[in-house]
Amino acid sequence: MLRKVLGVVAGIIVATLVFIGFERLRLIWYPYPTGYDPANHQAAARFEASLPALALLISLVGWIVGSVLCGATIRLIARGPARTPAYIAGLFLMTTGIVDIFMYAHPLWFIIAGIVCFIPAALLGHAMASR
Fold it and tell me: Using one digit for the tens of pLDDT, what is the confidence trace for 46-99?
């Protein structure tokens, strides 16, 4: 049981680090405008709304890669075939993704893909680590 809990925690940490890495990559390609104040919610909303689809795709790919690595981390640490820890981590990641999605206006395709991607990707990573 302890290995499963540790696996979930470690998996979420791995996923978070991957998410941050992809967001940093997105900021390299699509930097904040000069004079941008991240504490200003309206400025942040305008910036997010101005991003092209490719920038959103970078974030989405980061979420998928992070979730896959999360599931794989869980499987490697828990050392068991039980998929429940991967479901739990995927649900946690999905919840944080939903919060992120609805903080700013996003296109419908991103909202749907962002909500749907976490749990299947975590289960895919869990299954891939078994081989």
Answer: 888 888 999 999 999 999 999 999 999 999 999 888 899 999 999 999 999 999
Q: Check if the beta carbon of residue 28 is closer than 8 Å to that of residue 104.
A: no
CA 73 to chain centre: 15
Cβ atoms of 67 and 126 closer than 8 Å = no
Q: What CA–CA distance (Å, rounded) separates 10 from 74?
A: 7
**Contact status, residue 119 vs residue 66, Cβ threshold 8 Å:** no
Q: Domain locations in the chain?
A: 2-129
Residues, the chain = 131
CB neighbours of residue 54 within 10 Å: 10
The amino acid that residue 102 corresponds to is F
Yes or no: say if 58 and 22 are a contact pair by the CB < 8 Å rule: yes
